[in-house]
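Try it yourself: sequence plus PRP, in.
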Amino acid sequence: MNYPANDLERILLSEEEIKVRVESLAKQISKDYTDTPNLYLVGILKGAFIFLADLARHITVPHKVDFMALSSYGATTESTGEVRIILDLRQPVERMHILIVEDIIDTGNTVHYLQRLLKGRQPASLKTCALIKKQRNSIEVPVDYLGFTIPNVWVVGYGLDYADTYRTLPYIAELKKEIYQPR
Ligand code: PRP
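Structure, out:
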């Protein structure tokens, strides 16, 4: 992979740690949704594409997969709290058991917005699965399945980006501050 390794401060979550946790989340989800028809995994692009692909392939109960693309307005690391829909679901979700699959909860704005939006579409149920959550969020949002809690640093890899780069690193690493906070 062609990323400058010296952009990274340290590896926060190794490939193996992520694999083990994703499999355990999938196991719990499969158990909780046994005998529940119409499980509908909603992956939030772009960040969740790798997490969703790995998670879904370990979920052993029948399910469908769809995507939404959302983006926070603003600069590369500053969230303004506004969220816009770039790509919406392809079908109505009434009678569906929706599981939002998100890569990271940072301020909480995106998931807060999504939970309100999707609840309004009257699904049979609505839960949220996030791979990582930062320790401090401005909005506390309910998360039913959580992989890891991390400190308030900028992380990249396993779907997560900085300026649309580093998404395909196999691990999750802290980016050096001088990369995202240039002096
Ligand atoms: C990132 C991430 C989450 C959101 C979390 O998406 O994938 O969706 O930010 O931040 P929040 O909790 O502060 O709302 P981003 O808008 O950067 O788009 P991307 O997934 O395409 O990278």
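One thing you can check immediately is this: The helical segments are 15-32, 49-56, 109-119, 177-180.
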